[in-house]
């Protein structure tokens, strides 16, 4: 089981504008993989001891 972060054009109103995450169960053998984006979740932010942020910090100038 893994997690795939992604950003799409629908984010920002009711979802996190910096992205969401989708849990993916990778099959043991190679082949097609079906993703159901109905199960996408907002990313955990900000970073705490109990909730590490999966996004990199903003780049400083």
Protein described:
With 61 residues, the chain is mostly beta strands. The protein has a domain at 2-42. It is 0% helix and 20% strand. The protein contains no helices and 3 strands. A 3-stranded antiparallel beta sheet has the order 1-2-3, with no helix packed on it. It is globular and about 45 Å long. It starts with a strand and ends in a 19-residue tail after the last strand. The mean pLDDT is 78.
Features:
61 residues; mainly beta; 3-stranded antiparallel sheet; 3 strands; 0% helix; globular
Brief synopsis:
With 61 residues, this protein is mostly beta strands.
Cα(first) to Cα(last) distance is 37 Å
Given helix and strand content, the structural type is: mainly beta
Query: What proportion of the residues is helical, as a percent range?
Result: under 10%
Q: State the order of secondary-structure elements, H for helix, E for strand.
A: EEE
Break the fold down into its secondary structure elements and pairings.
Blueprint: E1 2-6, E2 20-24, E3 41-42
Antiparallel strand pairs: 1-2, 2-3
